[in-house]
Design goal:
Length: 672
């Protein structure tokens, strides 16, 4: 140390060597002024050549070696103020040559264990930068990295010093046209993820200041730090949230005000980031991201967004069932606008990618989400039938699963989709088969939702085709109990629903007898339904023969309940035509006998009283006259086939009897 001290004495003189590391700031300041004058003297000679630079470098090396690298804090403080004095003495004309000995040693002190040393490091670099101006930007990345550390410092004075330095660096950057923004953005995009609130404030301030520079196009760099801005919306610090929100609002306005091509480019690069924001846990983040998506969709009228439809849809659907009312409201509005935009688009767009999003969202239990997904499927089936035909098979199972949803609105929407699918090629039979399979697998659903599902399908599909397809499928079905239940539901809808009115009226026409036959045999699985169908189509001979056979049936509760329902149905306006036929017993004596037979079979409860009162209207004298005189042929068309059909009915009935015997035996064994 003696040798270097001698060298220091030779360069700086005894006063500087003694007072520069003094505990007193004032003494250090006086020594620093002497160092400044010394450096100025080097450059005051007329022809210094390289001598002044060499002497300056020697002085800098001494300050670094003997002061900044000294274990004593006061020495390091003295060294820092000494370096600042050298920079001031060099002035702007000469400082560039010596920055490599000025800036790196100071930056190293940013990590000094003593807070006062770190503070003086800020002050020292401030003076160096003030002199060097643009030249100091050579070390910008290291300076910025150091600022990030100091902004997170535990010492308040160090933070204040860092803020002063930061403001100067910003001034230098904004006035320097050659500043490498791209390189800085890469650094910023890494630091923006730091959770320290002071560092986050630093990031926001830099983004804001650079965005205010006319020559800097921050929109082109937005994808690199946008996710970081969205993450700040979830910060616990209110100022940071507001600062991030202000930044995001400004960038969104810039996108909206930019030209179509630039807007398309930026939106294309940030859309996935915004969608990710829509899925954030924090409400404010989701709301802000959704506002961005809403504006993107609004801009879709003037720019091309076709490649982004799947991403936009993904983000919007994620929010339509949000627990926050405002988010849900904006999402629903945005969804409607997006649906309309895609629906009216004449350009090609990625249908498979859209379907992938919809399939994923159909897993959501929310009513609004599922209905929205199904609306999209309907729209795509209408607008892009060719492309949708390629993906229909993967839609089947998810949509059929949706039929189990507890909300009727979802079920109705799913049925509308299935109806549209049924209109494509051979899919009608496939949809019918899968529907029957679903009902067979889930009897509870058939019982609770069967009528709703079938009526809705009758609304959207050709009723005749639906019924004949189901009838054909029933002929192959082996589960007799299922056939019994299904026929009852289909028959009730056929005879009572407004959706099937045209079809049931068609069954009355004599030239449609073949259509009736196609239903009749499958209907044998439910005798009471068969009877009601025969009464409706005026096949009274067949009806009477069926009633005769009912006498051989075991009078189960279910059977009697169905008879009770049939009597009440016959009293409805739908069967007014049949009731009027009772006024002409000569022509319809088998009808009268069928109804009288029903009365004989039924217990004397309310339904019996209804039927009994109806039959009393037919006066005994008129009945006697009708039975004694030659009658007019029944309007039915099955006379020639009646024997064969009844034989078939007996066979089906016997199968059901045997089935019940087996089922009862199995049940008894299980109980024991």
């Amino acid at each position: 140390m003696a040798a270097t001290s001698a060298e220091a004495l030779a360069v700086f003189g005894s006063n500087v060597v003694k007072t520069l590391p003094d505990k007193s700031y004032e003494k250090r300041k006086i020594a620093a002024q002497e160092v400044e004058q010394l450096i100025r003297s080097y450059y005051s000679q007329q022809h210094p050549g390289n001598t002044a630079h060499e002497k300056t470098r020697a002085a800098l090396e001494l300050l670094v070696r003997e002061y900044l690298e000294n274990p004593l804090g006061n020495y390091r403080k003295g060294g820092l103020i000494g370096l600042a004095s050298v920079a001031i003495g060099l002035e702007a004309a000469n400082i560039q040559t010596h920055l490599d000995l000025l800036v790196p040693p100071i930056l190293k002190c940013f990590s000094d264990p003593e807070s006062r040393v770190r503070y003086y490091a800020c002050e020292s670099l401030y003076n160096v930068a003030k002199v060097a101006r643009h030249d100091v930007l050579k070390y910008f990345n290291d300076i910025f990295d150091g600022l990030c550390k100091l902004f997170a410092d535990v010492d308040v004075e160090v933070k204040n010093g860092a803020q002063y330095l930061d403001r100067l660096i910003k001034d230098i950057v904004t006035e320097c046209p050659a500043f490498n923004v791209a390189e800085f953005i890469s650094l910023l995009s890494q630091r923006i993820r730091v959770l320290n609130p002071y560092v986050r404030q630093l990031m926001l301030s830099w983004i804001t200041i650079l965005d205010s520079v006319p020559d800097v196009d921050m929109l082109s760099y937005l994808p690199q730090f946008l996710e970081g801005l969205f993450s700040m919306l979830a910060d616990t610090n209110r100022d940071i949230r507001h600062g991030a929100d202000a930044c995001l609002s400004e960038f969104l306005n810039e996108i909206k005000q930019s030209g179509p091509k630039e807007a398309e480019s930026v939106i294309g690069e940030v859309a996935k980031i915004v969608v990710k924001g829509c899925k954030a846990a924090e409400n404010f983040c989701r709301l802000t991201a959704l506002v961005w998506l809403h504006d993107f969709v609004e801009m879709g009228a003037s720019i091309s967004l076709q490649p982004l439809y799947p991403a936009l849809l993904d983000g919007v659907l994620h929010c339509v069932d949000d627990s926050e009312e405002e988010i849900s409201r904006i999402a629903v509005t945005t969804h409607t606008a997006l649906l309309n935009m895609v629906n009216s688009s004449d350009f090609a767009f990625a249908v498979p990618e859209l379907v992938t999003v919809l399939l994923d969202k159909l897993k959501n239990e929310g009513v609004t989400v599922r209905v929205a997904c199904l609306q999209w499927v309907c729209m795509l089936l209408t607008r892009r039938p060719g492309q949708m035909a390629l993906v229909l098979e993967i839609l089947f199972d998810p949509i059929f699963e949706t039929l189990k949803h507890p909300d009727s609105e979802v079920v109705v929407a799913a049925l509308q989709v299935l109806a549209q699918i049924s209109q494509h090629g051979d899919f009608f039979d496939l949809v019918s088969q899968k529907l029957l399979h679903l009902f067979a697998k889930d009897r509870k659903m058939l019982d609770q939702r069967g009528r709703l599902v079938i009526r809705q399908l009758c609304t959207y599909l050709d009723v005749q085709q639906l019924y004949t397809t189901i009838a054909k499928a029933l002929e192959q079905e082996q589960d007799l109990e299922y056939c019994h239940q299904l026929v009852q539901i289909f028959n009730w809808i056929l005879l009572t629903a407004k959706e099937t009115k045209e079809f049931r009226e068609k069954l009355l026409h004599a030239d449609e007898s073949e259509l009736f036959r196609r239903l009749l045999v499958p209907w044998f699985h439910n005798p009471v339904s068969t009877l009601s169908l025969c009464l409706w189509v005026q096949e009274y001979d067949m009806a009477f023969e069926l009633v005769r056979r009912f006498a051989t049936f075991e009078p189960s509760v279910e059977f009697l309940v169905q008879l009770d329902q049939l009597v009440h149905l016959m009293e409805s306006p739908i069967f007014a035509r049949m009731r009027l036929h009772l006024l002409d017993p000569r022509s319809h004596h088998t009808l009268l006998k069928a109804l009288m037979g029903l009365a004989m079979l039924m217990p004397q409860a309310s339904a019996f009283q209804i039927l009994h009162h109806r039959l009393q209207i037919v006066q005994t004298g008129l009945l006697s006259e009708g039975l004694q005189k030659p009658g007019v042929a029944s309007p039915g068309t099955l006379k020639a086939e009646l024997s064969g059909l009844l034989q078939k009915f007996d066979e089906v009935t016997l199968r059901h009897v045997r089935y019940k015997i087996v089922e009862n035996a199995i049940h008894s064994d299980a109980m024991t």
